Amino acid sequence: MLASPAAWSHSPSGLGLPGYGGGLSSPSQDGALGLVLNPAAAHPDQAQVLIDAGFLRYHYGYALENQEPVPDASQDLLPYLAAAVPLGPVGLGLSGGLPYARSGSSDPQGPNRFHTIVGRLMLMEVDASLAWQATPWLTLGASARGGQTRYRSIVAIDAGAMVNSLLDQPLAPVGDPLLEGTRSVESAVGWAWGWTAGARLAWDTGLAFSGGYRSPTRTTIHGPVQITPSNDLNMSLEGELTGTFAFPPEVFLAAAIPIGPAELDLEGGWIGWGSMATVHQQADSVTIVSDDPILTALLASYGLDDPALLGTLETEGVYGLGDMFTMGVAARFPVAPQWRMLTGVYLAQAAMGTEYLAPGNFDYATVDGRAVASWQPYEKVSMGLSGDWIHYRGRTVTDSIYAWDNTVDEGPALPPAEGEYWFRMFRVGLTVMMEL
Length: 436
Known about the structure:
Elements: E1 48-64, E2 70-87, E3 90-105, E4 118-135, E5 138-158, H1 159-167, E6 180-202, E7 208-214, E8 217-228, E9 236-247, E10 250-259, E11 262-271, E12 278-289, H2 293-301, H3 307-310, E13 313-318, E14 324-336, E15 339-348, E16 366-378, E17 381-392, E18 395-397, E19 419-435
Antiparallel strand pairs: 1-2, 1-19, 2-3, 3-4, 4-5, 5-6, 6-7, 6-8, 7-10, 8-9, 9-12, 10-11, 11-14, 12-13, 14-15, 15-16, 16-17, 17-19, 18-19
């Protein structure tokens, strides 16, 4: 499973990933360490290259009312690359990684299969930055971002509940095994685009302030969708899925304050996860298909295999994400010749109200404790080993919006999700930075 990100220092709320860019990266920093969010960092004193690999381990689970606890664990390896090159008063930067991701799975025969069987949403992004040193103490920057969004989803459906929800009348039975099927999107892909503007004020004393704005990253995904109304019937609806949404806009502020040989870093930001509160999806050119030759012939004889018959099916995915704030404080200080340490704490609000939590859709307020040991074996090479322990306070759901008898206006027609949810995670990362 990939954690649910906030993108400025990438605290793990919303769809975010902790420690994105490495344990030493921060918008308070110059050069490759600052490109994690601020394009104005693309004008360091010397050319720099940064490579980071982070290993994430998750332990999570839930205990819904009248059900046994469902614990699980998983891990992921996430790379990040950044480079910054000064060219006179201009600087060029390039970075790439996985800023947003969420995925998960559950037993296809288990009680929570209607919330998710397999799910994955991620953005792989490349950020090209241009910085201009307007004065000895002011650098302005802008970047263009582009990437690829990938989506996969398989869930069980109750055709009776779906019909009742659409018609706003209890005409079909709910829970009938004959009316249980699946909705499957094996692979939907789309391109995503956005931009960032930032500024950095820095003085010879080491005092520096940074700030900026990251635009929404808008994307439209396309891929085949298959809806099987009943697993006992050799018949399904097939079409082309289109989903349109935007990863969130962000505002960030940061400061680096020298205190003797040490440095105090302060960070804060706003993340507009409300841009993904709902996601519009539609299936075009929907046809009824079957592998049974007799049933196929019957569909053709009655014209039921004509895409014009069903046309377009539209739905709104309800995720309940909202805007949030995040902040952090860290200290960087020497501990021995060639060795420095960073210790810090980063806080993030939950981006989702408890009523929207479900086995396939969850989020937590977080406290991220970080420690980094940095070693400089050569004048132009440094290495950092980082560890993050991300604490999530468990959440109790007593007001779930999910119910089998929901109408379209009331919420998703899914099993109730009242119960206890818990999550914990740690990250270990290795960062290598070289000056050229």
